[in-house]
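Appendix C reproduces, verbatim, an entry submitted by the partner laboratory led by Prof. M.T., so that reviewers can inspect both the input and the predicted structure.
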Amino acid sequence: MRTMRSVRAMARIAFVALALGASIANVHAGEARLVHPVFQDHAVLQRDRPIRLWGQAPQGEQVAVSLAGRTTRVRADGDGRWEATLPPQAAGGPYELAVEAGASRQVLHDVQVGDVWLCSGQSNMELPLWRALDASSEIASAAHPRIRLFMVPKAAADLPAPGFEGEPRWEVASPDSAREFSAACFYFARELQKTVDVPMGLVQAAWGGSRIESWTSAEALRAGGDQDEALDVLALHATDPSAALARWGPSWERWWRSRDGVPPDDAPWRPDAPLAADWRVAPAELGAWERWGVPALAAYDGMLWYRTQVTLTAAQAARPAVLELGAIDETDMTWVNGVAVGSRYGPGSARRYPLPPGLLKAGANTVAINVLDTYRDGGLAGPASAHALRLDDGSRVILDAPWRYRPAPGGAAPPSAPWQAANGLATLYNGMIAPLGRLGLRGVLWYQGESNTGDGAAYATRLRALRADWRARFGDALPFLVVQLAGYGMPPVTPGESGWAEVREAQRRVVADDTASGLAVAIDIGDPYDIHPPNKQELGRRLARVARHVVYGERMPSPSGPVARAAWRVPGGVAVAFDGVTGGLAAKSADTPIGFELCGAAGAPCHYARATLAGDRVLLDASLEEAPRRVRYCWADGPVCTLHDSSGLPAGPFELPVSSAEVPR
């Protein structure tokens, strides 16, 4: 029996099908598709700046582009590409945008001119309205005719793509269209329109689990100078995937042998590698290793080796074949008979790896898989019959030997194959940012970093490179609004190191060195049990406040709460001064704040410090034998942070050097 939800879903599907059919019918009726798909009915164009538009027309044909009574004429080049620039236009609409080339004509209806925002990052930017707080009522009230939504289809590519994968559409914000859209992005625009009363165009380009390197162009990454080998492999993968694998496999294997505690002869991918006692038989049904009933794996996030065999006849071994693997969570590196055949990131997705000719042999063939899981369930999905060789005659030969496994403890994560979607190099830039061309933007909202916490010390360099890279594409003065990572995980009981804290500090420093960047502090609206905190309404409010100051020039003490400025030694301790304090500093649920640490030189241990409030300063008692060299605040994955000001905004996490004397403003 169908539920009401399924009936509504079918109705939505039918409506979308009818709408797409009508669009195609219009094209067939004489409205040729002349303009790039980023420009459609209901689109928003950036106000107060020259409006760039582009598309395809017959080679050498004159193209006329008209908007709001103004027309520009250009000519298509030798490849049929045209680009036109219309004069700046004030906020307004709706308008019709007409493009004509010879006998072909395309008209876009209900086009608005306002502010366009690119909302990008990983899963916390991707998280839709239906997963945020108070989802039912928020979705029901999501009708905002002057907020327009454009969701870039998920796509990864080895080279910059000229167009989108699929048929994305601009949609007017409504309960149906907003339901799956980024909650952080939508709530930001809704809040911002209270003070900036213009149409808002929201472009969502986000992918859960993605690293910052995948959003950065190959040129920008190569300028960093530390990833040339991997970028060379990526370029090779675009034309010859087998050759790229042949180069990448040995690189991965060298990394494995460089791990601490790995014997020089430990090569689990090799078919002649012995299966010692530490290789145990996996359950026949496979599935998430957390559910095997093995205590050591019950909450294990890390790498696991799998090994099995498949027996072939000489005739079977001579046929072209594809290795089919069931769903894997999250990242695999796979070998057959000691030769690397594939690597992919894709939580819960199946793999299909074509095998090089001559790799298979009559008799036993060894399949070895290294699986990396970093969040919740991980491993090879069952049943065992999901994993097989598919020969070119259509037959399947199931991997018939029992699967054996061996954990690979250690905190270091393996290098990601450069062509992997969310963990690769430039792959999401190529597939999701490049197709946007040089779209006019008001600014960028960036919420990413969770997937880079394993190497937080490098994040500042990566974030600066991304910001410069996107400004080179979209405009030198492009504002960048960064969400500082929310708290996640249980509060610590002793000071320690934290990759999450390192990323937050990198975000703070990168924003601080650029007047066209802003930071939205989210440390206090995280969830210790959920990496996807649902309170995206408050996050949207904070992002809008940052935009009002950084982008629109509204004067306020601080757009993001108290900001630590400097720390210096005073008799008996250390003073920390804050800028941007509204009213005065205060602590939640106590007279004094917690979460401050005093530390020695880099690498030396830290100790919690008692704090007292003094206007716009915090005074810390120093009980160290040596003079403190650094002060840290809220330095943990999921710290408890209690310092704020009278606006209610929190002081964000930071690390500062301790000077010998007061630092002047």
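The radius of gyration is 28 Å. Additional entries are available on request from the coordinating office.
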